[in-house]
Write a structure and sequence with these properties.
Layout (H helix, E strand, L loop, with lengths): L5 H21 L4 E7 L7 E9 L3 E6 L17 E8 L2 E2 L2 E3 L6 E6 L5 E9 L18 E4 L7 E2 L8 E7 L5 E4 L3 E5 L2 E4 L2 E2 H5 L3 E4 L1 E6 L8 E7 L9 H18 L7 E7 L6 E4 L3 E6 L7 H6 L3 H7 L26 H18 L5 H11 L3
Parallel strand pairs: 1-11, 18-19, 19-21
Antiparallel strand pairs: 1-2, 2-8, 3-7, 3-10, 4-5, 4-8, 6-7, 9-16, 11-14, 11-15, 12-16, 13-14, 17-18, 20-21
This protein binds zinc ion.
Zinc ion binds next to helix 6.
Length: about 375
């Protein structure tokens, strides 16, 4: 062991701190361009291209691993194919990390200031899986979860990385998202630059049959439901359904007294050929049930509590989150000891609101609550 005399050691520490501060101040966080071609969504294939600023040497990139709301290391790396890196038209050497399957090391050649990464994301078939690793596309609709279709560089929190994303959809498919759109032309949608955190917070629902229902017309911040289904008939719900979801917004406002989103979208998939679940975001939720979930009375009753639960998460889980679940990026593990607050309180309030909005009668509400209690 070597030993520094105290004063020299303090000077060295000061110098290191100064150099680090200057380097941090002089190295703005990278601005990344992400292009997703979803025109092959009916075949369950999404083509991805990224341009990532880089310096010569080794560049470490991550595929999102710990996905918000999934509470585990579930990023579907097993569905990524065709990964390739180039700079100036030349293919680059890369390797997958030997200890972490979501980490890649790319050799950036001298003179390069950026690299291009390309990959395909292949969504599972059937209605397999859950959350953003689950089946996500049919020949009539799809949900694009951005964490499935991107890489990000090591060294910055996701709040500091900026992504400028664009998306191509199958001809005549409509879409809904909480992300701000800057332009649409030639079949390409361009989104306003956002942090990586807010990009992943804003999935896109798209489909041939897409119904948009404003839930608080004329009020700020706006709330709407964007529903994609495998058939037009699946969207033909009784008028009371839409009234109940308008009530949900009113009742949730009354419960919390404030909103923290700028623009909220319920993204609701109705298909027997996608995975079924609900996944919360701050400004939207990605909720998926069977094709007849709104038109079959029994199925409607069984699924009645899903959207209210996910909406409550905008407050409990997103605006406020247990500290050890609020990680700086998608590589650092989340700790789940306070999930009983994150999920437990949300489940309770979601049940209350499902009754207050009218989608369950008082008796059905009591039955649903009794069904939650383990004997
Ligand atoms: Zn939940």
């Amino acid at each position: 062991m070597s030993h520094f005399p105290g004063r020299i050691f303090r000077h060295v520490l000061l110098l290191v701190a100064l150099v680090s501060a200057v380097m941090a101040a002089g190295a703005p966080a990278p601005q990344i361009t992400l292009s997703v071609d979803a025109t092959d969504a009916p075949r369950k294939i999404f083509h991805v291209r990224l341009i990532i600023p880089a310096k010569p040497g080794s560049l470490t990139l991550y595929y999102p691993k710990w996905i918000p709301g999934e509470h585990g290391p579930t990023g579907p790396i097993q569905d990524v194919a065709g990964l390739k890196f180039t700079a100036g038209g030349k293919t680059l050497t890369w390797r997958r990390d030997l200890l972490d399957g979501w980490t890649f090391h790319v050799e950036v050649p001298a003179g390069a200031s950026s690299i291009e990464a390309s990959l395909d994301f292949i969504s599972p078939a059937g209605s397999e899986g859950i959350y953003t690793g689950g089946a996500t596309a049919t020949d009539k609709m799809a949900v694009i979860n951005w964490n499935d279709v991107l890489l990000y560089p090591e060294g910055w929190p996701s709040d500091d990385l900026t992504y400028t994303a664009s998306l191509r959809l199958p001809a005549d498919w409509k879409f809904g998202t909480s992300l701000a759109v800057t332009s649409q032309s030639g079949g390409e949608i361009k989104f306003a630059p956002v942090s990586l955190t807010m990009l992943i917070d804003g999935p896109v629902i798209t489909g041939e049959y897409l119904k948009v229902v404003p839930l608080n017309a004329g009020q700020k911040p706006p709330v709407e439901m964007d529903i994609a289904a495998d058939s037009a008939a699946a969207l033909d719900a009784p008028a009371e359904v839409w009234e109940h979801y308008k009530n949900l917004v009113k009742q949730t406002d009354a419960l919390f007294g404030a909103q923290h989103y700028r623009d909220y979208h319920f993204l609701y998939s109705l298909s027997d050929h996608v995975a079924h679940f609900g996944l919360e975001h701050h400004e939207s939720n990605d909720s998926r049930l069977g094709e007849r979930a709104l038109v079959d009375p029994t199925k409607r009753l069984l699924g009645a509590g899903l959207l209210s639960h996910e909406f409550v998460h905008s407050w409990n889980g997103k605006y406020r989150r247990p500290a050890d679940l609020a990680t700086p990026d998608y590589e650092k593990p989340m700790q789940t000891d306070l999930l009983w607050v994150y999920e437990g309180l949300t489940e309770y309030l979601g049940e209350i609101l499902t009754g207050r909005m009218g989608e369950r009668t008082p008796e059905e509400f009591r039955d649903a609550l009794a069904n939650e209690v383990e004997p």
